[in-house]
Amino acid sequence: MKKTVVVVHTGPVTIQPLKDQFKNLLPDVRMINIMDDSLLNDVMSAGHLTKDVTQRIYSYMKDAEDMKADMILNACSSVGEATDVVKNMVNVPIIKIDEAMADQASEIGSKIGVLATVKTTLEPTVRLVKKKALEKNKEITVIERIAEGAFQALLDGNGEKHDQILKDTIYDLMEQVDVVVLAQVSMARLVPSLGETKVPVLSSPKSGVETLKKALEQLNS
User: Fold this and answer.
1) Mean pLDDT per 10-residue section of the chain, whose length is 221 residues
2) CATH code of the domain covering residue 111
3) Rg (alpha carbons) of the chain, rounded to whole number
């Protein structure tokens, strides 16, 4: 019987990258997308995850359960910690898109650079990387970086400027760390254009969906 995965998005930019990964890795899985762009806007306005946003995340996860989902994929790092709160409140396993990436980063090196265009995504990603290192009893140093001006360029409709700011920031960060973590799904499309890099540059769509695939296979075993 065909498996169903409900993906919860906080904006349109994560939908296509994840559709592409599903097409490559999970072609026989039914993918249902739930998108509410007010979630990320509210987190950014407050500067942190709020009770109201967590409640709404729960309602979407509950909707996914009602849709008979076999798995739920949370597509946004900014609300990843809401997933931690609600995961025991629904009877469907929940995968976080960035968990595998954070785990991989903590294995690769002790100096980890985390890059985002917005603070509300940067901070939870940093906490997740530190949590993964702690689970391994590994001491790490995290260098946090906001790609200044990139998000505004995107809002202004200047995707080229956004991408160039990100690339420049990635190259600069590489000089200081063992591995670079791209905190937002939307950044993943830049990785192929970086060419051969001095240190690994990790993004979440592929590793997140690979984790989802393994979890779905375990359901069958």
Assistant:
1) 94 92 96 95 92 96 97 93 93 96 95 94 94 95 95 86 94 96 90 91 95 91 65
2) 3.40.50.1860
3) 17
